[in-house]
Automatic annotation (TrEMBL):
Keywords carried by this UniProt record: Cell membrane, Membrane, Transmembrane, Transmembrane helix
Regions crossing the membrane: 6-24, 31-52, 58-80
Highest classification ranks of the organism: Bacteria, Pseudomonadati, Pseudomonadota, Gammaproteobacteria, Vibrionales
Name the UniProt record assigns to this protein: Transglycosylase
Provenance organism: Vibrio inusitatus NBRC 102082
UniProt-annotated location(s): Cell membrane
Family as reported in the entry's similarity comment: Belongs to the UPF0410 family.
Amino acid sequence: MYVMGFVLFLLIGALAGWLAGNFMKGGGFGLVGNIVVGILGAIFGGFIFNILGLTAGGLVGSLVTATVGAVLLLYIVGLVKKA
């Protein structure tokens, strides 16, 4: 059961990374980089949503949380990259 959850987490993160790369035109890192950013963004988004007291229920909520986290992460990395 835990393996299925982990695989689903990776798939959601990968999809979120791809979506974030499309939202942040010019802010992406290619397919593999965006997948990694999406997975890290899923963790980051979950942390941010938890601090704000928001919950992401279900598959769509998890995808939204991961995508928001990935977009924020790409934005932060873009700022650091420019500096």
